[in-house]
Amino acid sequence: MEGKNKDHRALLNQGEENELEVFGFQTHNLRRALCLTASVLTCGALLLVLYWRPQWRVWATCVPCPLQEADTLLLRTTDEFQRYTRKKVICLYLSTLKFPISKNLEQPLVADHHSVINQAVLKPELKLRCIQVQKIKYVWDNLEKRFQKVGLLEDSHSCYDIHHMFGLGLTSEEQEIRRLVCGPNAIEVEIQPIWKLLVKQVLNPFYVFQAFTLTLWLSQGYIEYSVAIIILTVLSIVLSVYDLRQQSVKLHNLVEDHNKVQVTITVKGKGLQELESRLLVPGDVLILPGKLSLPCDAVLIEGSCVVNEGMLTGESIPVTKTPLPAMENTMPWKAHSLEDYRKHVLFCGTEVVQVKPSAQGPVRAVVLQTGYNTAKGDLVRSILYPRPLNFKLYSDAFKFIVFLACLGVAGFFYALGVYMYHGVSPRDTATMALLLLTVTVPPVLPAALTTGIVYAQKRLMRKKIFCISPQRINMCGQINLVCFDKTGTLTEDGLDLWGTVPTAGNRFQEVHSFASGRALPWGPLCAAMASCHSLILLDGTIQGDPLDLKMFEGTAWIMEHRNADYCKFRVSDSSVIIKPGPKAGQSPVEAIAILRQFPFSSSLQRMSVVAQLAGEEHVHVYMKGAPEMLAQFCRSETVPQDFPQQLRNYTKQGFRVIALAHKALSVGKLLEVESLSREKVESELTFLGLLIMENRLKKETKPVLKELSEARIRTVMITGDNLQTAITVAKNSEMIPQGSQVILIDAHEPEEFVPASVTWQLVENQENGPGKNETYINIGNSSVPAGEKGSCYHFAMSGKSYQVLSQHFNSLLPKILVNATIFARMSPGQKSSLVEEFQKLNYYVGMCGDGANDCGALKMAHAGISLSEQEASVASPFTSKTANIECVPHLIKEGRAALVSSFGVFKYLTMYGIIQFIGTSLLYWQLQLFGNYQYLMQDVAITLMVCLTMSSTHAYPKLAPYRPAGQLLSPPLLLSVLLNTCFTCIVQICTFLYVKQQPWYCEVYRYSECFLDNQSDFSTNMTLERNWTGNATLVPGSVLSFESTTLWPITTINCITVAFIFSKGKPFRKPIYTNYMFSFLLISAFSLTVFILFSDFQDIYQGMEFIPTITSWRVSVLVAALTQFCVAFFVEDAILQNRELWLLIKKQFGFYSKSQYRNWQKKLAEDPTWPPMNRTDYSGDGQNGFYINRGYESPEEIPKGKPDGRGQGTEQHFWTRL
């Protein structure tokens, strides 16, 4: 049984972000027939439920079976949302191909022995089973007994395999097999037909409930109100459909050109062939003739090229790609060395701007992935299938709606009881009971909740902040930690040259200052600066990395394409020639040719080139990179002894330091340069010296960091730069306040007999570096939350140390993270991992970067803000067109305002439903209800207008030192709704009972003769007599009564006053009077209600179905409503919104934050041994590497709370979960 269950279930994409559980089912005809019969009997209601719940549909119509036999699959996400989808298994037959295929079991279908295709096709039937999930195709692997992805080359291939198995191309037969199995190489975004979008919207559970409500109201003659709601609903649906259609068209247009590229490939045995890119398959050999938009992911195997990856990263800096080495080993190609494999990969959607053929022939690349498996396909899929947003507001809102629905159900049974007791006909009883059921859930709820976000989005656009995930705006209101990249974010993007420090005879020489205006003297250092870069000459202009550009400009040399004058170099035409410019120093060398490049990568922290000087037979290697890294590749005798001290001296001053090295290399022929390995080139070098560059802070950095600090929003720096430079920038920007201690964490991997270790070293507190004169503003304790007075220390570490801590000191990492401020030399993967670790501590994390190497972290954070030039960079949810960090406080302010607005609107709509429910329930007691125009006034003139304008109040210009409540189910909010409900109950019940005690009161609905005899006391207009004549018996559903005339102004004024009370301004929004439209509508609605209450116009009374009462009674009604407002306003403002009072209550009753980081802060503040300083700790066990500080930890002190999900992905409206 256990084995069968195992066969029934499997995992898809195991260990990946989009991991899914798959369950196998077989369709059962009898069950299908029963379901169909039940659907007919329930008039389609069962079909609707099965549409909303695909898992119920599968359970109802199918029986479980092993996956191998399944014709229907049920897929479930493994995240906290557990979403289900249903998929049909499709069978493909290779016999449909135009050429004969061997049915021999021993003979493989494709030459690639790693390919899943050989294991997926059943022989002799030539059949394979597949499914398509979120645009990705999976085939059933008969050997592994699981579904496997197709449309890509397996990662298990070695470099040798790729060169020799695919280097000559695929046979045309194998191409056809792969085309059938993998599908077309196309990223097709279908423009959804309008009817499909309409059906999808209309079948939303909320709209189905609304349709039921409106049908009921129309049947009861509530024509005007029903029409108003129908217009609103239709408008809402049309706008939603239009918006979805526009997004669909925009995305379709974005990817459409990708499918129409003409490419040239090599076919085995046939030579070159030109075809449309949609026919490409994994394993094809692509010829790159020149400029081209890449239609697939491919790995370069011959020649090199320059690619613009702006579409992927948001940064339009040309990147040089080099061919995959043809190494003879069995190691997977991605792991053949520690090098970054991405430098060999050409990604789909990126632009090839320049190609450099090798001596062997044109630039060639093997197709790795096609269609939606590519990098661009992955981005498009993330837009098409966003992960649901895990935010407490939406789950709490869903619970609130369930509560209101339960209230409605209670009302339904109450109405049934009352009407049955009075002997009303079953039809009328059911109708009136259903009417009360629909009162509690307001039909404007979906529109009202998105309004605040729409307003915030428009305000952000005015500040040049663009958003592709609007639901995240509310999340921004909860941000309490912001991570910043350094270069280009906190500091200026362009670096200024400060000077060079050459070496000679194992010693540093005199500094050459660029400010002096003197030309850089010729020497190996000058040659290295002129040639060791990835700059390219494109249409006569030099393009590339700003750092490389600045360094090259400092030499005053120029770059040009090789021509006949340079035939002495004996190199290919594609080589670039560098020669001294008019302002360059005297040089014995006429020109330098770059023969080979080993590009820079974040993980390697270095780059090198092989170059030839004019007139020389041998070649030179020039290398530049991070000083600490580069020194390891140099001969120790060439590195000055005071190198660490000199480096520290410059980095402490905040300079960006780059080291340069060189060696001469003898090669027999220049062709041998192409076959040189990086390991051979980058060894035994001579240290040349240091290039010092200034990286100035942007003028906005300091004020913004101060503003965030005063708002008690923690700031962290994550950079790829040197640790000392990062510490200096953090101090100069006051990210680390004056007087704070910086503790350096240096962690080391375990060695043969030594376990992993971590060293804590206090950095010298040198406030002002030499040559700097920074003035510091003492923020004092404004940035230190209560309970953290002793925590004026900051941890700083490198990416390497962070990696060791993650792997070997799991339990130590959270303690460090709550006070870690600087993370230097971080790789893109480490940046993403760090953001995730912060989220596990229950921080709401914002990430601000330039989009280049921050893509993963920007996507991972709750709010990623890219400072790239592109309007809606797919790299992050938010994009600022202003390239400084001023966008961060703007976004947080708007997020807070939108969040508070959402809460206000939700509270208002809840109270509005409850107010109407109480009033209607009281009238039901005597089988009455409010009139059509009475409802219309409340629903359209007040509620609809309020909901559309309540959220347009602008954000408060100053950030408060605390965040708004993050969840609806919080004590202040629940108490607010509860107390306002109590006040409403008391006032409505009292007036309902008190009106019956008045001497002029008459039960109009029961005794019309009594009323008509006494009518002259209340009105002189006898023409109303006919309209007011009723039966002497109880008439269900009648409107006219003193009770409804009294309750209507009470409920209407109550609706207006709660809208005012729940529209709190400061500290997160501007005062209510600044929202002119909202204020005008409230005043107008209140004035109109008072006018109707005190007017004696026949038409008004007839239309509104009121009975005139004496003036003193009307005054009493107004006083009662205003008294309720005063009490409610005082309670809300002085008690429920009183933060100090709530903090005192929490303290008295011992309530503390459940956030992991708060728990750690509290524990660490009480720990006398923390923070450790000037000591080394070792992991408790070298095998599994868990750190145990026995003087600190005990089992009961470890926080046990499960961390919240990180909440990635984009919006999913909570009402779709109904």
UniProtKB/TrEMBL annotation:
Residues 16-141 form the P5B-type ATPase N-terminal domain. Residues 1192-1218 are annotated as: Disordered. It is found in: Membrane. One of its GO terms (molecular function) is ATP binding. The keyword Phosphoprotein does not apply. Residues 169-212 form the Cation-transporting P-type ATPase N-terminal domain. GO terms for biological process: intracellular calcium ion homeostasis. Keywords: ATP-binding, Glycoprotein, Magnesium, Membrane, Metal-binding, Nucleotide-binding, Translocase, Transmembrane, Transmembrane helix. It catalyses: ATP + H2O = ADP + phosphate + H(+). Belongs to the cation transport ATPase (P-type) (TC 3.A.3) family. Type V subfamily. This is Cation-transporting ATPase.
